[in-house]
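Structure tokens please, single chain.
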Amino acid sequence: MSCSTIYNEYDGVQHDYTRKQGLVWGHIFLPDFAPAEWQERAKLWNAVEEAEKTKDSRLAREFVAALPVELSKDEWVELLSKFIQEQFVGNGMCADVAIHDTDGHNPHAHIMLTVRPLNENGTWQHKTEKEYLCVKNGEERGFTASEYKEAQKDGWEKQYQYKVGKKKEYMTPSAAEAQGVERVSKYPKSTKYGRQNPISKRWNSEEQLVKWRAAWADEVNLFLEQKGLDERIDHRSFAEQGKDEQPTIHEGVAARAMEKKGFLSDRCELNRQIKRDNALLRELKDEMQKLFMVVQNAIPALAKAFEKLRARMIVMSYQIIHSRRFAKRAQSDLSEIRPLLRKYDRIVSEMKERITDRQTLLTQREALTPFQFSARKRIDQDLTKLTEELEELQYYKNDIQMQFGKHNAKEMKEVRTWLNNRETELKKAEDSHAKYSALLDSALSDYRKLERQVKDADPQMLADARLAIRAEEEQKVISDLEQGYGHAYDPDVMRAAKDNISKLLEDKEIAVQHQLTSPSQRQRKNHEQKQKEKSEGHSR
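Here you go.
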């Protein structure tokens, strides 16, 4: 994040990111009681590494803040410094901040925060303490080591495992002595995860995260207001804001790179579709607001209202068909990849078991004396068999890797990542299908409501007016979809969408009857039909 060089004392690796682009500004903020030497980035994070003992310890917490493009670099620094000092450093955290703006359009700050509270003498506090489950008069209560010293004086006892018959039970030493049972473990009974430091617990809570997000939104909005700018941000989700719109997903560097090279990225495509959907939803709300205000006898306005609503329903139908086809392709991909990946995992697991068995046999063989010929022969036979099985498994493993176009286990992780992404995209497509189906049902209800409101209007005049502008409205839909989907736009899907809406609205028969002809042409045809019937009457 800091585009710098840091030597990691934990594993002895020198990390050099000085060639990384996009760094605008970086700084380290420390509480008053933190060691001054931690202003040097390497010393700060090596001190963090040193404090953690388990291999899966969390080393830092990252807070990523989007910065307003309307502000300058100095204003970003001023805004961030005030926020970090109040929300993080003032609560005892060390903060390592870096502002990035690679392309000049996406300024943001990475705020790396320490996760252990600091004592006033500059040492780290614990994250959790062991909590012993003690008993007194049948009541069980948890105590830390320091608390137990006082609790013990009050009659509280730790519990240990004792063998009672064929079972193992937890009981106090005094109770065990009375029953004359034997202790089988030296470890007292305790809670599974211990007692969490209350400060760490607060920092890790969902409530605190919401408070930080709200504080950032308030700080940015106040700053924008002071600068005389009208823009504002909101930390709440669309659902919390009462919006029906769908948020976009994170695209990532890889997807953007694919798009720049002219390839179609599924993640970028989903975002484009979401943006189109949101624009469609906003436009539909505006249109529906206007539709019900249309004067019933204003035929041209009514025709335009009907055809605009029909055109939007065609777009919805297009989205439904598109998402259904995308989901079908994704399901097809997953049905091919999942079994092969499961087979690969099974082979890897079997190889690990055989490697373990082989190592065990080698150890046994080394322990044999030179004169244990039969035992040595048996072990050699087993080793030969295991080696053959390993070679066969390796062959199948390599074969699967080649099918994926990969060469090693590390590259196979890319397949798993792709599979997970594909499953996420499938879920998005299924959600999109469900959402547009619901929107289409709602739009159809509005359409029927509008039909009932204009039942007294001249149906022939309304049909003529609608058909006169239908081609234009449909062409607008096609242009919008072509612009939104680019080379992914499919005319066959458009035709299917139009057919679906025609059947749904039961207006296909009217369209065929009118054939987009003018009223004068239909009058001439009616006159010809009447003359023909009159002539047939004279003949009879």
